[in-house]
Amino acid sequence: MEDPSRRESAPLLPRNLSEIIAIVLVATLACMAYTAYLSDADMPSWAVPLSAVVFAVAIVLCFIARMDVDVSDEGVEIRYLFKTREYPRDQILDKRFGDLGDIRNYSNWNLKGVSHKSYTRVGEEGGVALKLKGKRVVVFSSKDPEGMFSRVPLEVIEDA
Fold first, then answer.
1. Is 1 helix (H, G, I), strand (E, B) or coil?
2. Cα distances (angstroms) measured from residue 106 to each of 86, 95, 114, 158, 159
3. Count of alpha carbons within 13 Å of 81, Cβ hemisphere only?
4. Mean residue pLDDT across the chain
5. 84 conformational bin, left if phi > 0, alpha if psi -120 to 50, beta if neither
6. What tens digit of pLDDT does each residue of 91-147 get?
7. For residue 111, what pLDDT is reported?
8. How buried is 137 (Cβ within 10 angstroms: 0-12 exposed, 13-18 middle, 19+ buried)?
9. Around Cβ 11, how many Cβ atoms within 10 Å?
């Protein structure tokens, strides 16, 4: 019997993009330091140290930022950066998967006045969309959208 739960965890940014961002920020800091300390430019004394701290935080965030998606019989849990959102089974009314551009337009759901939330990773083109109670729609990207889609539980509404 196949396990009904599925977990997917990956960085928000591809490693090579994080490395490029880090190189650009370090090069920018080096140019600022040169301008501040070795040339005759008027730059406040606090500009370079403050920029170094801000750039260091940005570089660390580029490498540690992650998105985790857990799908189980109880529902869907998404951890995006530092925030966790839970979508219980009894809240999920409908689901679809495919290309993010296609499922984001919600073409045949005919939704008006709906709250939309997207959780995506850079470089992933496929994902899953969930229609929730309370006029909400959540979209998340996935490496295997069809596999995630097949495991998302739906609330079964029985006709009276």
1. coil
2. 21, 10, 11, 24, 25
3. 6
4. 87
5. beta
6. 998 899 999 887 776 555 566 677 888 999 998 999 999 988 888 889 999 999 998
7. 61
8. buried
9. 17
Query: Is residue 128 within 8 Å of 149, Cβ to Cβ?
Result: yes
Burial class (CB in 10 A: 0-12, 13-18, 19+), 36: middle
Give which of 67, 69, 82, 80 is closest to 130, Cα–Cα: 69
Look-up: residue for tokens 């019989």?
73
Distance CA 156, CA 47 (A): 59
Which two three-digit tokens encode residue 69?
């998606």
Check: CB of residue 77 under 8 Å from CB of residue 8: no
pTM to 2 decimal places: 0.80
| pLDDT score recorded for residue 156 | 62
Query: Which amino acid makes up residue 101?
Result: G
Instruction: In whole angstroms, give the CA distance from residue 65 to residue 122.
Output: 11
3-state secondary structure of 138: strand
- Is residue 102 within 8 Å of 141, Cβ to Cβ? no
Report the pLDDT value the prediction gives residue 1, as an integer from 0 to 100.
40
Q: Quick check: helix, strand or coil at residue 16?
A: helix
